[in-house]
Amino acid sequence: MYAYTDSDTEVQTQKGTDVKAQRQAQLHSRQQTTALKFRLGGAQNLATSEALSPGAGPEGGGASQVEVGLRVIRRRRAKMAASTCDVFSFCVGVAGRARVSVEVRFVSSAKGKGLFATQLIRKGETIFVERPLVAAQFLWNALYRYRACDHCLRALEKAEENAQRLTGKPGQVLPHPELCTVRKDLHQNCPHCQVMYCSAECRLAATEQYHQVLCPGPSQDDPLHPLNKLQEAWRSVHYPPETASIMLMARMVATVKQAKDKDRWIRLFSQFCNKTANEEEEIVHKLLGDKFKGQLELLRRLFTEALYEEAVSQWFTPDGFRSLFALVGTNGQGIGTSSLSQWVHACDALELKPQDREQLDIFIDQLYKDIEAATGEFLNCEGSGLFVLQSCCNHSCVPNAETSFPENNFLLHVTALEDIKPGEEICISYLDCCQRERSRHSRHKILRENYLFVCSCPKCLAEADEPNVTSEEEEEEEEEEEGEPEDAELGDEMTDV
Questions:
Q1: Pick from 252, 321, 251: which is nearest to 288 by CA?
Q2: Dihedral of the CA atoms 406, 408, 413, 419 (nearest 10)?
Q3: 9-30: pLDDT as tens digits
Q4: Does residue 146 sit in helix, strand or coil?
């Protein structure tokens, strides 16, 4: 702690709006992939572990399993009722509307809680906008110079700079540069460790919530600094594509350390779903690989050396650290930001002559081809965050809502995909568009392996009589994914310029 004193699938070119609609769909699909691929679970499959809650422990008195189960259900219902205000406290802009249009209900011991509409929500309507309790950029993403605000993850590069880095062409020029919304004149850095923020507001927010604890001061490049040792250990065991960050956990601890009302923050973090010990091991194995036990202990030791806090001492025990790790792996919502995609959206909104529109569309399509050839799939500044209300949304293979980050920062929008009636559950999908089109067997395989539950949504129930087979195309895709080495050359996947 430093002593603080202040804070695009190739697109065939067509005329007219078809090209815009096609590209917007592709950009939207890319955003959805970013928002989904890091999330290893949600409210589904809520288990009986309470390892993250203060005073948690086994039920005593030799009670029967039924009695123990009832106690757990009653305790969770009471906790849910008591924390209703907290559930909505991170909604922004339309926070008042969220309070009157949705409610959190306990669904079942298997499914946990869920989010339900209390009034008619029209298709296309923003149900709520929410900021995360904590968010953090992925460490490899940051190391490879995907420049983002250290607090809200807003992309800091100008759209043209972004295009130059992603194409590997320093002389790349974008038309209509005035459409770029990045304001470099507003950027500020921490005067002690030099991390960058998009604005004075973000710098102040970070300072007041967690950065005073995490600021390494002039030791930001010292490999022996406890936080740098922790980050290097994390990068050595968790290669791209990244799905979590040890720094999300670090910001949780730092938030509690700095908080005047520590109990409130501990209560907020304890709302996220917990897993059984076996499920936690599955999650850790998924994140760290076959040698996860030794790696987890190394991370716990370094985490403790850098951040120990008495108020959450249970987080630093072997069981508590595994639970904290599983919480982040299970509930972390992927966040993706890009100044280039914002510029493309702005270009699509321009009113141009047909000839000018065609030329611009050809340019943008070629730009994305060049980016794909040079950089591959890593286009965005990427990270993850913990969102209280969004975490209450269960999965469906036919979702009636979706998540996105249209403001190019960590503000999550949940939007209705269809009319949602009062009393109807609001469900998002943990699968991307392509995965949702796969067979029931394939969908269940992905959900079991990554989210540890069996889906019983209307689509899965309607396809219950289908044979448990995977198509040849899907098998080939899975074999390709499984055949990729975990520590493949990173230089071909990310751009370091």
A1: 321
A2: 10
A3: 333 334 445 555 666 666 555 5
A4: coil
